[in-house]
Amino acid sequence: MKLLQGKTVLVTGGSTGIGRAAAIGAAKAGADVAINYRSSSAEAESCIAEIEAAGQRGLAVQGDVADPAVAGEFIAKAVEGFGKVDVMVSNAGICPFHSFLDMPVETVQRTMNVNLLGGYFMCQAAARQMVEQGHGGAIVAVSSISALVGGEYQTHYTPTKAGLHSLMQSAAIALGKHNIRCNSVLPGTILTEINKDDLADMEKRARMEARIPLGRLGAAEDLAGPIVFLASDMASYVTGAALLVDGGAFVNLQ
């Protein structure tokens, strides 16, 4: 029995990076998977091809999570295609690195609208569908180690990730009576599109790798297992929790 056999999983920002890895990982665990994506049509199509290669149904729905209306549209199309929603993985996010003192207002607002408000409305829409269905469900938010630590060029980003972590704690309380579990994963430094330019600095990359007890930066696929676990019935008594997936970076203070 695969961990997500018979379940329908929705993933935002599912065409690349952690979202893509989570979507494909969910399919390999037996789930039908619907992904949301904003602009990467070719990548979305190739992700669906991998989901189908795993023997599951896949669906790609285009839309910008910064638009609250997109949340309801994504849920509606997933239900139309698969009949239900069992799991929401709120992953879509951006991090345009910038210094604090001259941070453009537009950059702050866009980051908040995508990362925090986009996550809020997606999770809310999924929860409404789960409550209507009446058989519970699971919500997993992709937060970040940045919810717990600072970043000089991430003053607009870290509050959004702390917000997602906090959202899962409060939503766990609000939705527990409906048997809907809400948890977050907190990735460390993962090699994805979001940070490829920043990590092109080989000196900085080497310095970051040296701080990680496991000796390497993370890959998107490193998040697939933890997300599948939290989405599965193996985590049936886990809610309001946060799972660090950072190779030990957070604890390596000395």
From TrEMBL:
Molecular-function GO term, any one: oxidoreductase activity
UniProt keywords, alphabetically: Oxidoreductase
Oxidoreductase among keywords: yes
Class of enzymatic activity (EC top level): oxidoreductase
InterPro entries tied to this protein: NAD(P)-bd_dom_sf, SDR_fam
Top-rank taxon, per record: Bacteria
E.C. number: 1.1.1.-
Chaperone found in the keyword field: no
Protein family according to the UniProt entry: Belongs to the short-chain dehydrogenases/reductases (SDR) family.
Name used for this protein in its record: SDR family NAD(P)-dependent oxidoreductase
Taxonomic source organism: Sphingomonas floccifaciens
